[in-house]
Every structure is written in C-alpha cells, then in structure tokens.
Amino acid sequence: MLQTVLQYLDEKHICPHCQTELTLCHSPSIHVGDGLGWGSEYLFICLNNECSLFVKGWEHIEHQYGHVGSYRHMELPNSKESFSMMVGGYDAFTGSIVDVDDLRRQDVRYQELQKALQQLDECLAKKDIKPVLTVLLNDSARLDDRKRAVMLLVPFNDLNCVELLRNHIFKDEHLGYEVKRALDTILQKHFLKECPYCAELVKLRAVVCKHCQRELSS
Ligand SMILES: [Zn+2]
Ligand SMILES: [Zn+2]
Description:
elongated, alpha+beta
C-alpha cells in the first residue's frame, strides 16, 4: 500500500483550466454521482479556488441543477483520464489531501529498516550496534525480527544504548519486557544499576544515590 502510493509521488499532473499542479488526495470511498468507486484509492485534484472551472462551476450547477456546488478538475493516477468532479463546497477534499512529507518519511524509515535487517546477522562481528537499534526502535518492524535484535543486546554489552531504549515505549508488552531484561543484564555486567528515583545510573554497591541523595534499598 505504501509502495503503491509512493510511485504516484513522482507524477506531476497539471490542471488544464488554471495550470496549477494537482494535489494527490485519497479518493472518496463512493463516487457521489453514480454510486461507483473511482477504481483508484488516490486521485489528483485541482484544489485551486481561483481555478476557472471551479469559479464558473457555481453558476452552472445552480442553473442546471438548482443546488449549491461546483466542479473540481480531477485526474486518475498513472493515467491521462480526467474528469470534472462535482463538489458541494470549498473544503471538499481538503481533509483527504495525502500527507506527502509523511509518506516520504515513512518510506525512508522503511528503507532504513530493510537495510538494518540485512545487516542484523553480521553486525555483532562488525561491532556495529546501529542495525539492532534501528530494528528495535521501529514499531512497524516484524516482531520476530525485533526479538532477534533483542537477543543481540547483551552480547553487544553497550551502555550507550541503555538510555535510548529506556525512553522508547514498546507497544508490545512482552518485547518491552525482554528489552528491559537485557538492559538490566548489561547494567549488571558494568556493575551499575538504575536509581529508582532519578533514573541515573549508580554503582551496584551504592546505598545512597550520588545524583539525588536518596537511600537505595540494596
Ligand atoms: Zn484548476
Ligand atoms: Zn537518584
């Protein structure tokens, strides 16, 4: 689904009425006019309020159908097919504009994840913890891939990843628990523990936290 819409991002559609670039929108689930779908999840629509088709449309629809409305120029993705689509008002479709920047960000994250997954098996030998963190911190990664990544945390024994992972909220409770257990093991291996009050790292043997001065129970 992400891949389908991404290929449309490079398409450029220009409105023949006003020469404005059309905006990629989610199509309405039902075509108001004939009750049929558009056959595409996405449409390119001219949302320019000064577009001559839109400006002249009000009068035409009032005259022809006796109700309030106008037309927007619309084109199907990956196609030369175009339509004048009836709309009820100015903000029809403004709520269904595709968030292109967000899609591009999702795509970047997706590509990063794919790369990290490829590197996961060899990253320990290469002493590069980045793929492990990328997989762990990406909530759309598959659960078994993330579990594979958790298993690598203790062998890496890297204190620098503790804060980063502690601050991530894992939607999968079990995974979150596995991560916490791995981090606890890493701290222990460094003879450290987390102060339960201020969350700073202190020596395992400490009875008072050097950061917040509170007493620590063993
Ligand atoms: Zn236009
Ligand atoms: Zn403390």
